[in-house]
Amino acid sequence: MTDIAMDNSRATTLSISALSAEPGAKVRGSVQADLGTLTVEVPLTLVNGTRPGPRIVVTAGVHGGEFTGIDAATRLAARLEPDQVRGQVVLCPVANPPAVYNGRLGTSPLDGVNINRVFPGDPGGSPTERLAAWLFATLLDGADAYVDLHSGGIDEVLRDFTGYRLTGDPEIDCRAADMARAIGIDDVILGLNAEGGNSHAAAARHGIPAVLVENGQLGERDPDAAERLVDGLLRLLTGTEHQQAQIREWVWVAGITAEVGGLWYPHFTAGDDVTEGEVIGRIVNPADGADHEVHASATGRVFYGMRGLTVAPGSELVAIAALRDTTR
To answer: In whole angstroms, what is the distance from residue 64 CA to residue 82 CA?
Structure first.
């Protein structure tokens, strides 16, 4: 825990909206988020440790259909107790209820917006933009560290990885690296800057060490994967030492989208290595049977990709990362 926030200590009441936990207490419940046209209930667990320390926020369910992170956060909420914690932990297993319960996709059924492209949100915007603003102001403002749990969605293959954004601040970047290492996944993908609307990027821009965790794929309910993730989170939250194989650091080199719509037939799975120019799939027009080949635009490893049959123009098909060049 000292690697996350050495100088921050709290021995105060932990309050989030209507929920409140005194030092040494654990409280579970839900709070209301006003999205303008409707109000949603956001579940929270507050664990206020018996010893002072940093405040760490863990979210899951930012996207619908990503079940491993939601399962792991819920298991952790049931298991984590104040005497294990130095500091305060805020657990939010379903950060985006409309997408989780009604959409089951990356975009919200309320407005078609992907919430993880609009952080830190807009309190006067669409319902999803308002939810992003509420999450950022209510949960992340004042946090000392942040972990956002994602999974491969119901139509997505994925190789497990953690990731964080480089901010140029050595202290923030070092703490984020320590957090990613504690989770226990060997592959770490670095964003070379903190730009963009992802929640962990927005947190990093605000000086909060933040880590993205991607674990599980295809919307599977995998208890073993959820338990492995819980173990990693417990190491992070309790400061438990972990013997781990050599971390592999990667950087994103390509994100390939569909140029046409049709039926998608990928020639890869997550974890495959591909070469620039290689045919990695084809899109078939169901009207005339015409093939449109899709080529890798860079050499590297596939970390996630579309497995669904039908795609529209602009659909994300595959994301490729390459090992980070540490010689520069």
So the answer is: 30
Which spans in 59-126 are helix H? Answer: 67-79, 97
What are the two backbone dihedrals, phi and then psi, of residue 234, each rounded to the nearest 5 degrees? -65, -40
If phi > 0 it is left, if psi is from -120 to 50 it is alpha, else beta; for residue 45 that is beta
Q: Are strands 19-21 and 39-48 parallel, antiparallel or unpaired?
A: unpaired
Model confidence pTM above 0.85: yes
What's the full length of the chain, in residues?
328
Q: Which alpha helices (H) appear in 46-101, and where do they start and end?
A: 67-79, 97
pLDDT tens digits for 306-316?
999 999 999 99
Is 231:184 a contact under the CB 8 Å cutoff?
yes
Reported as a single tens digit per residue, the pLDDT across 224-250 is 999 999 999 999 998 877 666 688 999
Task: Find the helix or strand (DSSP H, E) in which 132 lies.
Answer: helix 127-135
Question: Beta strands 273-274 and 248-257: pairing type?
Answer: unpaired
Integer Cα distance of 315 and 258 in angstroms:
5
